[in-house]
Amino acid sequence: MKPGRRALGVAESYRGTDGTATSTLAGAVVRVDRAVGDFSFARCAVGGRDSTDAIEALWKRLDRPDVRYLFLAGVAPAWYNVVDLGRLHRVIERPVLSVSFEDSGGLESGIAEAFDGDERRLRLEAYGALPGRHRLEIDGEPLFVRSIGLDRTRADAVVEAYTQKRRPEPLRVAKRLARRVDAARREGTIAPDDRRD
């Protein structure tokens, strides 16, 4: 892969699940040679259903047609705020790759325990519509990948190209940014409604 090929990684940080909390989403544009080129931020409701809207807004705010891939840290940020990977793929017209780092039996039971009625049903439907997840080992360490817009072989090659020490670099950088900005918001250094990026 060419060293200048860019990906956007999106990760989150939040504390609390009291129904009023918001999660900070950070997006980092990172080249395959690990150079960071840009970043942006958004927020979504903890326990809400607006993560897809927030990621779409973050993507559009960046306005980076040179970005070739979208990496997401998991599929259910902010306490089961399930992302619609198919919709993101249609809107941004780029491959979307969700990467998680732990094996699990899925999120259905967690969603069923946390929500009732339509809130449960809508989340379970969104989760059930996601593409299947497969295991990828890089340097003996497992990752779990879902992808839309790339077949499995190509998706694995893209994830591996951006990964160093088990973490795809766009997600590692995005996670650090999200934690720093979320901490600044909680400390009052950044106003809660400050949407600068």
CATH second-level architecture: 2-Layer Sandwich
For the biggest sheet, the summary is:
7 strands, mixed
Please mark out the parts with pLDDT under 50 across 5 or more consecutive residues, or reply none. Answer: none
What's the average pLDDT? 93
Order of strands in the sheet with the most strands? 3-2-1-4-5-7-6
CATH class: Alpha Beta
Give the total of beta strands: 9
CATH topology: archaeoglobus fulgidus dsm 4304 fold
Tell me the quaternary state: single chain
Number of helices: 7
Assign the structural class, choosing from mainly alpha, mainly beta, alpha/beta, alpha+beta, or little secondary structure: alpha+beta
* Helical coverage, percent range: 25-40%
Distance between the termini: 29 Å
Order of helices and strands: EEEHEHHEHHEEHEEH
Q: Characterize the overall form.
A: globular
Family: Belongs to the UPF0215 family.
Protein name: UPF0215 protein KM295_14055
InterPro entries: Endo_dU (IPR002802)
Structural description of this entry:
- The chain is α+β, with helices and mostly antiparallel strands.
- The chain has one domain: archaeoglobus fulgidus dsm 4304 fold (2-Layer Sandwich), CATH 3.30.2170.10.
- It has seven helices and nine strands, in the order βββαβααβααββαββα.
- It has helices spanning 51-62, 77-80, 85-92, 108-114, 117-128, 152-162, 169-187, and strands at 6-13, 22-31, 36-45, 67-73, 96-100, 134-138, 141-148, 163-164, 167-168.
- The strands form two sheets. A seven-stranded mixed sheet has the order 3-2-1-4-5-7-6, sandwiched between helices. A two-stranded antiparallel ribbon has the order 8-9.
- Helix 1 (51-62) runs parallel beside helix 3 and helix 4 runs antiparallel to helix 5 (117-128).
- The longest helix has 19 residues, at 169-187.
- The radius of gyration is 16 Å and the shape is globular.
- It comes from Natronomonas aquatica.
- Belongs to the UPF0215 family.
- InterPro entries: Endo_dU.
- This is UPF0215 protein KM295_14055.
